Request: fold
Amino acid sequence: MKRYLVPTLLLFVATTAFGQRETQTPNSHMKADPPALGLHWAKGAAGRPARPSSNPNLTSHGGPVMNNVTVQPIFWGTSWSSYSGDEMTGIDKFYAGISGTEYARTSDEYTGPGQSNSAGTISSSAHLVDTSKASGGGQTSAILAEVCKALSANNITPRTDGYYPVYTDLPRGHAQYCAWHSWGACGGTNVQFAFFWKLDGDAGCDPNSTVSGQSEGLAASANVSGHELSEARTDPRGTGWYDSSGAENADKCAWHFGTSSVSFKNGSSWKIQGNWSNWAYNNSQGYADASGHLGCLDGGNYKLSNIFP
Reply:
């Protein structure tokens, strides 16, 4: 969601129009923080974006997209050192299988300056672990600092096409959102990153997956991971694609599912929300978003393969 900072971040927000907010912070040292974009609001959260006043389609705001992206997951927090569940290995499997899928293609129709429609490539590496104490999602600069720290500690050079999702071991508590994405720089290299709460036992962020062999926490993390990755690809630096209310492609289909599971290239299956397709809306295809507009595609029952055969 374009430039929406979470109410629970203790930010003062001056609203000019819903979806076009000017953000102000009570602490001068936070003014340089990039905004948290693509907030995946929890079910029933009050901060959801307004419905667009006219055409629901996304429009380009002149900035780049990430057709090709390199993903490096980072798990941050003291409890990950003794963790015995399936979330870390499961998230690795999620990113390892997503490239070339019909789900990934739901973001490929959106292009940046000088680009043409083509199926992008998503590559990934096994997760990194930092067992120092994690911070919450209230300050984008803190999550960016963790990304830069983790990459440096593992002798990994940051990449301009890099997307670095940070999975903390902190529960959501009273925050109204499950995750967000943003951007910044490690040294002189521009990067994209995201923040995730630990979602085990969190009914507000639970997709209620029936896929066997996955914990509830993994299923929830995977669903919001798809949301944030899709938006980081189509609006990586706040100047890409979003609608007149500020909603990005995954925001528009949040908590709306076209099928019970979507298959990935490595044989894994995930219950995952679809993404908005301008083409689908213009051609009365896809399934409905919260406003009842057809246009959501999930890569399962609703595919974009007729654009990218």
About this structure: Residues 7-297 form one domain. The mean pLDDT is 87.
